[in-house]
Amino acid sequence: MMARRRGDLLGLRAALADRLLPVLVGAMSFLATLAIGGALACATLAAGWQGNIETALTIQVPQPGNPDAANDGTRLAAVQRALAVDPDVQNAAVMSTAEMNKLISPWLGSDAASLGLSLPAVITAQWRGAGSADTLGAQLQQVSPGTLVKTGAMWAQRVAALTTSLQACALAVLLVVALVAAAVVAVATRSGLAQLRETIDTVHGLGALDSDIAARFAARAVWLALGGSFGGTLLALPILAWLAWLAAPFTGPARLGGFFNLPPALLALALVLPACAALIGWITAQFTVRGWLRHLP
Q1: What dotted CATH number matches 56-151?
Q2: Dist. CA 114–CA 112, nearest whole Å
């Protein structure tokens, strides 16, 4: 009775209690925040990796100490001279023996020379050309036959495909979360309608419009969904902040200030997701109440 004297004429505060519905909507918002955060993190990492991988250039020179095609020095020296005058190749550097041993140690042990293997010289560089590096490979073949030139274009395409698939999964999770949240609001609304059936029958018989009754239920659902979603979103942000701190070495130096490494777009979820949850609550309550009222005699 006290709730009705305060403006709750239908008794919605008792019928739609502020316990189960906010908790369930908060759980859905928690999952949605993690899904969106994962999608944003994946896009950020992929953007950085694609840029580095796509421009990476690796040149393998077999038998680097043998004479080159013009018999004007070693094969490795000939390749280095060709790379030095190519404007599309930057930061060319020959991998040291220690670096080579570290690279192949998982397969051949820490000292490949002890196995009597003739390893090729490996040159790492950055490709700044507008097209592919096939022309460079052909040029190097002329001065040092057998030289292999590889770029990271194929791996960049795979990273892009992986990013797209992960973002599609995140979108699917968001769709499922939205549908479950709508179902939770619909069930809670129908439960409230069942509890207030006699009251609604009375006011509806006295001439209350369907839109007025639906608006009261929708307003109550909006506030419950808004509060629950806001709490669930805030609960997920510290977890995302911790995960962002763990991923910082892959994107840049780790920082512990300014709410860790969360991007502004992710922090905006604290406002966007509750608003979306409130909109879902309003629409679902409106349709549920109006559909239920149409079956009244």
Answers
A1: 3.30.70
A2: 5
